[in-house]
Automatic annotation (TrEMBL), chain A:
Lineage: Eukaryota, Fungi, Dikarya, Ascomycota, Saccharomycotina
InterPro entries: Bet3, NO_sig/Golgi_transp_ligand-bd, TRAPP_component
Subcellular location: Endoplasmic reticulum; Golgi apparatus, cis-Golgi network
GO cellular component: endoplasmic reticulum; Golgi apparatus; TRAPP complex
Pfam families the record matches: TRAPP
Family to which the UniProt record says this protein belongs: Belongs to the TRAPP small subunits family. BET3 subfamily.
Full protein name: Trafficking protein particle complex subunit BET3
Organism: Pichia sorbitophila (strain ATCC MYA-4447 / BCRC 22081 / CBS 7064 / NBRC 10061 / NRRL Y-12695)
Keywords: Endoplasmic reticulum, ER-Golgi transport, Golgi apparatus, Transport
From TrEMBL, chain B:
Subunit field text: Part of the multisubunit transport protein particle (TRAPP) complex.
Record flagged with keyword Endoplasmic reticulum: yes
Major location category of this protein: endoplasmic reticulum
Provenance organism: Pichia sorbitophila (strain ATCC MYA-4447 / BCRC 22081 / CBS 7064 / NBRC 10061 / NRRL Y-12695)
SUPFAM superfamilies: SNARE-like
Superkingdom of the organism of origin: Eukaryota
This protein's UniProt keywords: Endoplasmic reticulum, ER-Golgi transport, Golgi apparatus, Transport
Family per record: Belongs to the TRAPP small subunits family. BET5 subfamily.
Name of protein: Trafficking protein particle complex subunit
Subcellular location: Endoplasmic reticulum; Golgi apparatus, cis-Golgi network
GO biological process, one term: endoplasmic reticulum to Golgi vesicle-mediated transport
Keyword Ligase set for record: no
Lineage per the UniProt record: Eukaryota, Fungi, Dikarya, Ascomycota, Saccharomycotina
GO cellular component annotations of the record: endoplasmic reticulum; Golgi apparatus; TRAPP complex
Length: 193, 149
């Protein structure tokens, strides 16, 4: 982890974060957003995933500022460092979980975050329809992908984020993947390039 | 000792907030000089100086530009990892305002802009930061500092 961070994620969660008194309210609110989207889009789950992703992106763009303000973190030097920062500090201070960073590709540009628990999906069961389409198509916690994409883009990392497994679908674990497309260049003032 | 003005530039290098403090009763001006040559030239100069600073020495050691002074003024700069730049123009006698700039960002900006769902964060090309609460709270904060007047 970066030495420039003032505290560990653990300490910050304990001392420096306003916690929601009733985390069930948070979980249930998210659940009702997802179910409303399913109704609004007539159970077109691909569209629901996209909407959740977009909502997450807008959240991420704002959340990154709070993250930086709380941690005093500077830009990471390597993508490996970014991965550690996301898991040990980011997820820790906002959701009090610490996903495992794993399954790096050879080129060091793609890795997985395995969520051992998922506060968004407490109490949730996907309803089993006759065709089971919801289990094939809906990524219930897709908002997380959007949040990561939005937050990282603000620190000039262009990434793709997607779910590959979700225990809600009957998989053995909940896993999302991050792929670094490129480091974005800081913009230059007009007339300087 | 005096603080003269306060600017915020976004990651698109645009001046989204400018605040001039005058030592009178009129309270100065807000968002009047965002497109002024002064704002643009000042940004360009800080931008170039920052680049020069980062090219001195090896890459690992962060050599951030914090301030620069002229005969009658000192410019203080703080840049966030998201590319926002906070700039204060003061008297040359005030030598370090990093903690003030950090407070303006981590407290006032984050609470009134980033966490304010109805305020833009990635400003479009004609949008300015004109959130009244941000203006009044930062005014109060800056004017309460011993270095303000």
């Amino acid at each position: 982890m970066s030495k420039t961070t003032r505290y560990s994620g653990d300490e910050m969660w304990k001392n420096n974060v306003e916690k929601i008194q009733n985390s069930e309210l948070f979980t249930l609110t998210y659940g009702s957003v997802v179910s409303q989207l399913c109704r609004d889009f007539n159970n077109n789950y691909q569209e629901v995933n996209q909407q959740l992703d977009r909502m997450g992106y807008n959240i991420g763009m704002r959340l990154i500022e709070e993250f930086l303000a709380k941690t005093g973190a500077q830009r990471c030097q390597t993508f490996k460092e970014t991965a550690e920062m996301i898991s040990k500090v980011g997820f820790k201070i906002f959701l009090n979980i610490q996903p495992t960073v794993t399954n790096w590709t050879q080129d060091g540009k793609t890795f997985s975050l395995v969520l051992n628990e998922n506060p968004l999906a407490d109490f949730v069961e996907l309803p089993m329809g006759p065709d089971n389409r919801i289990c094939r198509d809906l990524w219930y916690s897709q908002v997380l992908c959007g949040v990561l994409r939005g937050a990282l883009q603000m620190v000039q990392l262009d990434v793709d984020v997607w779910f590959v497994k979700d225990v809600l679908r009957g998989d053995d674990q909940t896993e999302l993947r991050l792929r670094l497309n490129k480091f974005l260049k800081d913009e230059v003032p007009a007339g300087e390039d | 000792m005096t603080l003269h003005s306060f600017y915020i530039f976004d990651r698109h290098c645009r001046c989204v907030y400018s605040r001039e403090y005058t030592q009178g009763s009129d309270g100065g001006s807000t968002n009047r000089s965002n497109e002024s040559d002064t704002a643009k030239l000042m940004f360009g100069m800080l931008y170039s100086l920052k680049n020069i600073a980062s090219k001195l020495g090896d890459k690992e050691a962060r050599n951030n530009l914090k301030s620069l002074s002229t005969g009658k003024f000192r410019l203080h700069l703080f840049e966030t990892a998201t590319g926002l730049r906070f700039v204060i123009v003061s008297d040359p006698a005030i030598d370090n305002l990093q903690s003030v700039l950090w407070e303006l960002y981590s407290n006032y900006y984050v609470r009134n802009v980033a966490q304010n769902a109805l305020s833009p964060v990635d400003f479009a090309c004609d949008e300015l930061l004109a959130n009244p609460k941000f203006v009044s709270e930062t005014d109060r904060f800056l004017s309460s500092l011993p270095v303000f007047r």
